[in-house]
Structures are given as structure tokens and as C-alpha cells.
Amino acid sequence: MVRGMAKKRSKRTGGRPGGGRDPRAVFIDRVANIFDVPPAEAEALASTPLKQSIRVNTLSTRPRADIEADLAALGVERAPIAWAPDCFHLHSPKALVSESALFANGDVYIQNAASFIPPLALDARPGQRILDLCAAPGGKSAHIAAITNNTARLWLNDGIPARIAKLEEVIGLLGVNAETITTHPAQYADKFIEAAFDRILIDAQCTGEGMVDLSRAGALRYWSLERIRKYSRLQQRMLMSAWKLLKPGGLLVYSTCTFAPEENEAPVSHLVKHRDDADLEPIPLDVPGETPGRTNWEGANYEPALTHAMRIRPSEFLEGFFTARIRKAAD
């Protein structure tokens, strides 16, 4: 009887991170350790309301000058982002843009500025065959299309069928030419996709810690250490599968909007350790608030070259983010 009661109690608390500790305290401690800051600063980092940014859609059929004039006429206050061409931090309320004809017609697109990093890090070129493995809702796919002036051969995939409708809506609105759209599970991509790619983007499913706002009630409702471990295993399989689809000399960019090294450095380190043809490269972007990737975490040692990866600390316009750029050796 006593054993049964103990088992039942364990089942109730087993999902709580840190052996029954308050999830908020565990979360703050982890953020503090990841960024090497005091807990009070970590709590502030994870309690910052995020402002949005916009990207002017260069695939729009309207002249750029007309789009800029319409933004001015609406009174949209914005500041150019030095490291992201055609992108602006939004100082006006988001609704001023989201409720405008400019947004409804696909002349501009609203994103968090951190989402501009992966498409720029990918170094996409016209005519290349490019796979966006976790493409929905489509903002990064559209950015890649704009960078290549709609001449890349885009294969857009998302493993969650319910998200495909939104993906098709966004790329249709933004005038993206997609050669192929599929719904294959990303962790088994090589089992379904019989093609080789010059560039692959994996903006992986994750726990989304970088978007957490602790000032909001229920901010950690779905967060747990078990979810981190679950996603880590999934992300590792995604990387290993996608690597088989990358051409020699090609680039793979891996990104998440989370803090956890288990979801960031760990799966990337696993790939590099197990594939002799995988090399981490620096990301040639000067993003405010960037810090190097970690080379260790809670007793685990990662590839030293992970210092080339880019971590983003949350700030006014940037959610917490991680990006790594990996080159496959040429034949």
C-alpha cells in the first residue's frame, strides 16, 4: 500500500523539471547558466516583451519606391537593420502594418528579426536547389526566394500536414515560386526525398524558450526538461537525415528559437562528430547581442568549432535564437 502511494505521488510530480522544483526557478537557473549571467538578469532576459520587424518583399510586383511611400503615408516608424537588407525594426504598433493593404497584398511581411538570420546565413544563390525542411509558415522560405530573385529551385517541406495550408497561403501571397511542396517527416527526410541539394535549411521544431515571456501568466505551461530531451532526439535525427541529402560542397543551416544546449549545440555536435565531411563555419553577420555557441553544458563536451555558431540573447527586437552553419566537404 505504501509503495502504491509513493508510485502515485511520483507520477504526479514526475513531469516537473528539476525533481519537483518550481519550473520557473529551474528555467531561470538554466538561462542564467547558459548565458553566464546572474539569475536576476536571466529573469529579465526572459521577461522582455518583443517588438516585431518587417521585411519589404522584393518579389512584389509593385515598385519599391511605392511601397516605401505607402509605409510613410501610414506613418509607420521604422529603422533599417544594418545586417539585414530590406528589413526594418518596427517602432510603430504592429497593427499599423498588419491591418494595412501593404500586408494583405504581400508587399511587406512581419517577423521577429531573429528569423532573418537563417536565410541570410544560408548564402543562397540563384539557380541552386534548396530544401527548406521545416518550412511552415513560410516566412524564411519567402526570404530565400527573395534573396535568389525567385530563381532558386525551392523544395519546401513540413512534417506537420496541418501547417501546409498556411505555408501555401504565405508563399502564394508573397509571390514565391516553389518547385515542390511535401509533408514528409523531417527526421526521415532521406527515406522519402530522392534529390540532392546545394543548400538545406532546418529551422527545427523546438521548445521555443526564446519566445518565452515570464511576465505573462502560464508562460511555462508546456515547458519541461522532458520536452527538451524529446526535441533533442528529434533534432538529432533531422540533422543526420538531412545531411544525406546535401551535395558535397553544400551548406546546411540549422536554427531554433530556443536556449537549450540539448536542442542546439548537442545535435549539431553529434552530426559533426559522426560525419567526417561536416565542418562548422562562422556566420558572416554582425548581429547585436550575438554570443558564440557553447562547447560544454552540464558535463557534456561539444565540438570546439561550435564557437562559430551564433546564439542570440533576447532583446527589444530579437527573440532568443540559435543558428549554426555547416559545410559538407567537396569531393
From TrEMBL:
<feature type="binding site">
    <location>
        <position position="203"/>
    </location>
    <ligand>
        <name>S-adenosyl-L-methionine</name>
    </ligand>
</feature>
<dbReference type="InterPro" id="IPR023267">
    <property type="entry name" value="RCMT"/>
</dbReference>
<dbReference type="GO" id="GO:0008173">
    <property type="term" value="F:RNA methyltransferase activity"/>
</dbReference>
<feature type="active site" description="Nucleophile">
    <location>
        <position position="257"/>
    </location>
</feature>
<dbReference type="Pfam" id="PF01189">
    <property type="entry name" value="Methyltr_RsmB-F"/>
</dbReference>
<dbReference type="InterPro" id="IPR001678">
    <property type="entry name" value="MeTrfase_RsmB-F_NOP2_dom"/>
</dbReference>
<keyword id="KW-0949">S-adenosyl-L-methionine</keyword>
<feature type="binding site">
    <location>
        <position position="158"/>
    </location>
    <ligand>
        <name>S-adenosyl-L-methionine</name>
    </ligand>
</feature>
<feature type="binding site">
    <location>
        <begin position="134"/>
        <end position="140"/>
    </location>
    <ligand>
        <name>S-adenosyl-L-methionine</name>
    </ligand>
</feature>
<dbReference type="GO" id="GO:0001510">
    <property type="term" value="P:RNA methylation"/>
</dbReference>
<comment type="similarity">
    <text>Belongs to the class I-like SAM-binding methyltransferase superfamily. RsmB/NOP family.</text>
</comment>
<feature type="region of interest" description="Disordered">
    <location>
        <begin position="1"/>
        <end position="24"/>
    </location>
</feature>
<dbReference type="InterPro" id="IPR049560">
    <property type="entry name" value="MeTrfase_RsmB-F_NOP2_cat"/>
</dbReference>
<keyword id="KW-0694">RNA-binding</keyword>
<keyword id="KW-0808">Transferase</keyword>
<feature type="domain" description="SAM-dependent MTase RsmB/NOP-type">
    <location>
        <begin position="42"/>
        <end position="329"/>
    </location>
</feature>
<dbReference type="InterPro" id="IPR029063">
    <property type="entry name" value="SAM-dependent_MTases_sf"/>
</dbReference>
<feature type="compositionally biased region" description="Basic residues">
    <location>
        <begin position="1"/>
        <end position="14"/>
    </location>
</feature>
<keyword id="KW-0489">Methyltransferase</keyword>
<dbReference type="GO" id="GO:0003723">
    <property type="term" value="F:RNA binding"/>
</dbReference>
<protein>
    <recommendedName>
        <fullName>SAM-dependent MTase RsmB/NOP-type domain-containing protein</fullName>
    </recommendedName>
</protein>
